[in-house]
Prior knowledge:
The protein is mostly beta strands. Strands 1, 2, 3, 4, 5, 6, 7, 8, 9 and 10 form a 10-stranded mixed β-sheet that branches. The longest helix is centred in the N-terminal third of the chain and has 16 residues, at 3-18. The chain has a single domain, classed as PCu(A)C copper chaperone (Immunoglobulin-like, Sandwich). Helix content is 11%, strand content 53%.
Amino acid sequence: MNKHVFALIVSIALASTAFAQTTVTEPWARATVPQQTSGGVYLQLRSPDAARLVKATSPAARSVEIHTMEMNGQMMKMREVDAIDLPAGQSVGNFHIMLMGLKQQLKEGQSVPLSLTIERKGGKRETVMVDAPVKPIGFTPGHH
């Protein structure tokens, strides 16, 4: 292989690593019933370096909150938090996004748009756009 071509390939690989972004996997929202005013979006986040999820917004709701989820015996405890830590290279999913003041019913087959703000070292921010598919009301994921 030509030395110049090889150098170009290595340079591109290194550059793409330097600009690695937070990735979102398994996003979904549960369908709501008519007149329901809140809903939830669940997802997994992975950041290549230490970061924090500091904000979420959606045009589907009047306000959006970040909530942690933790089992306490037989009961699931949820609480609003200011941020979720994203340790470098680890998948994080022990949280959800609460949509408060839904503007319309979330129906199966639709999707919920979200904008997530990730803060990195030094205050640098990244915006990640997500379209979470709406699943049936009775949907239960396998490992969330």
